[in-house]
Amino acid sequence: xxxxxxxxxxxxxxxxxxxxxxxxxxxxxxxxxxxxxxxxxxxxxxxxxxxxxxxxxxxxxxxxxxxxxxxxxxxxxxxxxxxxxxxxxxxxxxxxxxxxxxxxxxxxxxxxxxxxxxxxxxxxxxxxxxxxxxxxxxxxxxxxxxxxxxxxxxxxxxxxxxxxxxxxx
Length: 169
What we know:
- By secondary structure, the chain is mainly β.
- The protein has one helix at about 110; strands at about 25-30, 35, 40, 45, 55-60, 70-75, 80, 90, 95-105, 110-120, 125, 130, 135-140, 145-155, 165-169.
- It has one domain.
- The chain has one helix and 15 strands; from the N terminus they run βββββββββαββββββ.
- It is elongated and about 80 Å long.
- The relative contact order is 0.19.
């Protein structure tokens, strides 16, 4: 306590700081057993444990006019698909998705990293990949069952371990 009108015991600058609210976010959904599951986002799990994910779609919410999200899947029997944007989905409807790449484009890519982790049949949750790196497996024929995706401020800490995000046979 300080006597009325006395000097403060330290600096009185920056006593209250408001963190800017980010308007950027991502939504995504998966296709399981001939139906689209509800949209989810920002680190939530899409997919169902024990069920094959056969298609996947994303949506980027951003105020930037040049911002975009692109993604592709490695499909059993077909290989890597062409890159898709939020107006399209990856997958074939009846074939397994074995791996993913997800990347941001435009100004948003200068401000955020995009991380994603997949749960693979017979292996469980793998490490986090980011910014277009491979996530999943190749050469095993294991299906992806679930995925989590999160945007992190550029060069911020990963949401978990980045070890073993992609396993090549």
